[in-house]
Design a protein that fits this description.
With 185 residues, the protein is an all-beta fold. The chain has one domain (2-183): YVTN repeat-like/Quinoprotein amine dehydrogenase (Methylamine Dehydrogenase, Chain H, 7 Propeller). Helices cover 0% and strands 52% of the residues. It has strands at residues 2-3, 9-11, 21-24, 31-36, 42-47, 51-56, 68-71, 76-83, 88-94, 99-105, 114-119, 125-131, 136-141, 145-150, 155-161, 167-172, 179-183. The mean pLDDT is 93. One of its GO terms (cellular component) is RAVE complex. This is DMXL2 protein. Pfam families: WD40. Keywords: WD repeat.
Length: 185
């Protein structure tokens, strides 16, 4: 799966020289993040205008439409994570009201899909990591802060400054004992 500054999103297969599917043509907002869900049957794409779009991967048409597309953040959606069996999605980004980490239910209408919004990360959340064993979300922000959220209780557990500049990467070890942050510095 490839995404570009011009907003195009294409899927390739290792053994074929041509693309299998063009999910999105050039001329859209720049792609900020892309993932497949754990089952491999859906892919999601976040963009620089605050949108998240999700497609079924097993499409037979060459230019399929997303089955879900909505604006998650008013400025940009920088990262997202599929939670559970892809019906719950967490997003990070930047919104005018500082609701920069959000939980969404993909099975309800778009007007009711926001489950919870965390007010955090002045100037926006840049990265997001889901810890399924502990049901936690870890986010990094533009000012170097890291926040840890309990998604069951829908509350912020910890906030601390990890870096002097924007957190650009988060990684979680498989046993979920440790996580690592990387910054722009």
């Amino acid at each position: 799966l490839t995404g570009a500054q011009d907003g195009s999103v294409r899927m390739f297969e290792w053994t074929r020289p041509q693309q299998l599917v063009c999910f999105q043509q050039a001329g859209n907002a720049r792609v900020t993040r892309m993932y497949f869900n754990a089952q491999g049957n859906k892919c999601g794409v976040a963009d620089g205008e605050g949108f998240l779009s999700i497609w079924q991967v097993n499409q037979t048409t060459s230019n399929p439409k997303p089955y879900l597309s909505w604006q998650c953040h008013s400025k940009t959606t920088s990262d997202f994570a599929f939670i559970t069996s892809s019906s719950l999605v967490a997003t990070s980004g930047q919104s005018n009201d500082n609701r920069n980490v959000c939980l969404w239910d993909t099975l309800v209408s778009s007007g009711n899909s926001l489950i919870h919004a965390f007010t955090c990360h002045d100037h926006g959340a840049t990265v997001l990591q889901y810890a399924p064993k502990h049901q936690l979300l870890i986010s990094g922000g533009r000012k170097g802060y890291v926040c840890i959220f309990d998604i069951r209780q829908r509350q912020t557990l910890f906030t601390f400054q990890a870096h002097e500049s924007a957190v650009k990467a988060l990684a979680l070890d498989p046993s979920e004992d440790y996580f690592v942050t990387g910054s722009a510095e």
